[in-house]
Design goal:
By secondary structure, this protein is of the alpha/beta class. It contains 18 helices and 13 strands. A hairpin with a 2-residue loop joins strand 7 (232-233) and strand 8 (236-237).
Length: 412
């Protein structure tokens, strides 16, 4: 379970000090082959208390969040607030390429472990710091949750969530931290590219707010419009989600230049099954627009559309969409995703052994199919302190007597 594997980042070592704000960064680097050592406080990281839990057993070794976010990593325990713990960490830094951390601004420096301290030990070290608002600015010392970052860092997205006659709501599952972790990987690899030509390491300052605002800026740049909450376009309600026999389908009527590629194919399918009225078939789709029509016309179109979709299953709708070349898609459930033939064909799912449980579980696996070095889950997430002996005794040369002393003192 601890053998070195060859991946695109296999030559490199990462010391992962992150909590849930940056934990995705180390996961991606580990799945790309880096030797990521997850450093937890003695007794286990607080992220192990994040649910859901396997079989609903609230056990630090059964957190599905922990399992998902720590694949391919090795794991040790270490208290860097204790002087001896800091010395052990410094020894690890000497042989490392990256340190990723998500502590409050100034915390690492207060321990003598800031970037300026670590670069004296290893001039090529790359420190990735992931914080709510970055290392400088008037908000740098503010705390921030996923909800806060979603509201402050991607206001245009949160503003669109929910119905127009109600306050904005958050998206169902935390997103900001995943974006920040991913951007942390990008920054780390750019810094690594720079190091290959200069020999110099650097600090990568990742602001979660910046990451979320980047999404907003890109969206506006692409669409040249500000999003609004709800599905109201001027004086009409526009329907996107339609019920069918066994679920829902995503679809929206479109007029103008797109009508012949988007709306008319569905009209033709409905007409072929005698479920499109003469009125619907003869509608002036070239000049149809949600901006200048009435709610009465929208309701009439919606009534025929809903009646048609309710006669079909999701599978039948997908077959018809391919046959009539209609741009729509049935909304997938978790079961639909798991059974997707497309994902199966691309080897997306991966079996991961959990020897301590005498069981094997299916994980979302590779997110890119690199021809030579595809990302891969090389081992399941580490147990608390699972690799302490391996790293402290075998790699750092700590004696067995010293190891026992460190454990009694709760340094490891």
């Amino acid at each position: 379970m601890t053998e070195r594997v060859e991946g695109m980042l296999s030559p490199y070592r990462v010391l992962d000090l992150t909590d849930e704000k940056g934990i995705m960064c180390g996961k991606l680097m580990a799945d790309m082959g880096a030797d990521v050592i997850k450093i937890e406080r003695p007794g286990g990281d607080a992220a192990r208390s994040i649910g859901p839990f396997y079989r609903d057993e609230k056990d630090p070794e059964h957190s599905l969040f922990w399992w998902a976010m720590n694949t391919s990593k090795r794991g040790i325990t270490l208290d860097i607030e204790k002087p001896v713990g800091r010395e052990l960490f410094r020894k690890l830094v000497v042989k490392a390429d990256f340190v990723i951390e998500s502590y409050p601004v100034g915390y690492m420096a207060s321990l003598g472990l800031g970037y300026q301290d670590l670069e004296k030990l290893n001039s090529g070290i790359i420190v990735v710091s992931i914080t709510p608002f970055g290392q400088f600015g008037p908000y740098k010392d503010f705390k921030g949750s996923d909800l806060v970052e979603w509201a402050m860092g991607s206001g245009s997205y949160m503003r669109t969530m929910g119905d127009l006659d109600r306050p904005p709501i958050r998206i169902g599952h935390p997103q900001c931290y995943y974006h920040a972790g991913t951007e942390g990987v990008v920054g780390a690899l750019v810094a690594l590219y720079h190091r290959r030509s200069s020999g110099e390491g650097q600090q990568v300052d990742v602001s979660i707010q910046d990451c979320m605002n980047f999404l907003t800026a890109v969206d506006y740049d692409l669409n040249k419009t500000k999003r609004v909450r709800g599905l109201k376009y001027f004086n009409v309600e526009v329907k996107h989600i339609w019920q069918c026999k066994d679920g829902y389908v995503m679809w929206r009527w479109t007029g103008g230049p797109l009508a012949r590629r988007h709306s008319l194919p569905l009209v033709n399918w409905m007409a072929a099954e005698e479920m499109a009225s003469d009125w619907l078939r003869n509608l002036d789709w070239d000049n149809f627009s949600h901006y200048n029509t009435t709610q009465e016309i929208i309701d009439r179109i919606d009534g025929e559309t809903l009646a048609f979709f309710k006669t079909k299953t999701k599978a039948q709708i997908m077959e018809g969409a391919v046959k009539f070349r209609i741009m729509l898609y049935a909304l997938a459930t978790a079961k639909d995703v798991y059974e997707s033939p497309q994902l199966a064909a691309r080897d997306f799912w991966q079996k991961v052994e959990h020897p301590e449980m005498n069981a094997t579980f299916t994980y979302p696996g590779r997110w890119a199919n690199n021809s030579l070095t595809p990302p891969c889950i090389f081992r399941r997430a580490p147990l608390v302190g699972e690799h302490n002996h391996e790293i402290y005794e075998q790699e750092l040369g700590v004696s067995k007597a010293e190891y026992r002393r460190l454990k009694r003192a709760k340094v490891i």
